[in-house]
Amino acid sequence: ESVMKILSIESSCDETAAAIIEDGRCILANQVYTQIAIHRKYGGVVPEIASRNHVMKMPYVVQDALDEAQLTFDDLDAIAVTKGPGLVGALLVGVSEAKALAYALDKPLIGVNHIEGHIAANYLAFPELEPPFLALIVSGGHTNLVIVKDYGTNIILGRTRDDAAGEAFDKVARVLGYPYPGGPAIDQAAQIGDAQAIDFPRVMLEKDSYDFSFSGLKSAVLNELNHRKMKNIPYKKEDVAASFQAAVLDVLTEKTIRCAEAYGMKKIVIAGGVSANKGLRTRMDVAAKQHNWALYYPPLSLCTDNAAMIGARAYYDFKLGRTSSWDLNAVPGLEL
Ligand code: KG4
Ligand code: ZN
């Protein structure tokens, strides 16, 4: 049986990315052009600026991927692209590029769900990893606990009711004066700060719920900072970062453990930008030892947005017959 080479494109937020993936598991090329430096001065992603930069960079990123793999368009078997969720204008750049390529080259087009892509980052890092497993997805836009039953079936057990985990990191970082994106800055600060300095709320919701809520925690951090500024009570930024992060990690770890126990899952996968968090990885490593889990999280380069994970997921979508037609459109609010 011959191998399948998929060119994949990602442009859902502020990374312009293209990759070439063989049979869903092997990275032949992985090019990421990040716009972080462009958006930093605005304190967050400006959608219109993101779209414009995707337009400017996309053809070069695609060519760089081909060059990296030492391939030409003729060597490709399919074109994949993130169809959602994400910023609509940003998504449309990738979708248009992928459609144009697939049409011109007469190859199949595969629209991929970005969240499923994050999960598939682990397929690239761990060739032996196969469903079923329990996945905790923690990114800038999403927080989900889901049983990946097989390559085509997700059972969603929990989702955020307000802010995503990464969103909370970014908002708290912003009020602490850290540059965008704040997650990595909080992660670093938390390593030297005192996690017990401030007792922030751990919002667990109903006893049997696997949903999340982080907006109350975010408000608690803002209120604490305002209170201290008004009363001239000194504080260390690092302590606030560490205390905030500990509250997030307590909830994420506790809910994952509960969920794994309730459903008898021993194979646990973490994915999404926040899975880069050192504290989260350490906490999950400890939980894995205690509960006898086989635990998987991607290398740092595959945690945040990239096209390699989209190409990995696309392979399984293709095998399931889930190809797209020429009316493929961006779906900004696409769910898992
Ligand atoms: O998956 P991702 O690149 O984009 C989305 O699909 O949303 O996730 C980006 C999010 C941002 O909120 C960023 O602050 C967060 O992941 N992040 C982190 C870390 N690295 C990235 N959060 C905590 N600790 C980190 N080390
Ligand atoms: Zn993402």
Could you characterize the architecture of this molecule?
This protein has 336 residues and is α/β, with parallel strands linked by helices. It folds into two domains: 5-120 and 303-319, Nucleotidyltransferase, domain 5 (2-Layer Sandwich); 130-300, ATPase, nucleotide binding domain (Nucleotidyltransferase, domain 5, 2-Layer Sandwich). Helices cover 46% and strands 19% of the residues. It is built from eleven helices and ten strands. It has helices at residues 36-40, 47-69, 88-105, 114-125, 165-176, 182-192, 215-230, 237-262, 278-291, 300-303, 308-319, and strands at residues 5-10, 15-22, 26-34, 78-84, 109-113, 133-138, 143-150, 153-159, 267-271, 294-296. Strands 3-2-1-4-5 form a five-stranded mixed sheet, with helices on both faces. A hairpin with a 4-residue loop joins strand 1 and strand 2 (15-22). Helix 5 runs parallel beside helix 7, helix 5 runs antiparallel to helix 8 (237-262) and helix 6 crosses helix 8. The longest helix has 26 residues, at 237-262. It starts with a strand and ends in a 17-residue tail after the last helix. Bound molecules: 5'-O-[(R)-(carboxyoxy)(hydroxy)phosphoryl]adenosine and zinc ion (ZN).
Task: Considering the chains and any ligands shown, give keywords for the structure.
336 residues, TsaD, binds zinc ion, Nucleotidyltransferase, domain 5, five-stranded mixed sheet, binds 5'-O-[(R)-(carboxyoxy)(hydroxy)phosphoryl]adenosine, alpha/beta, 10 strands, EC 2.3.1.234
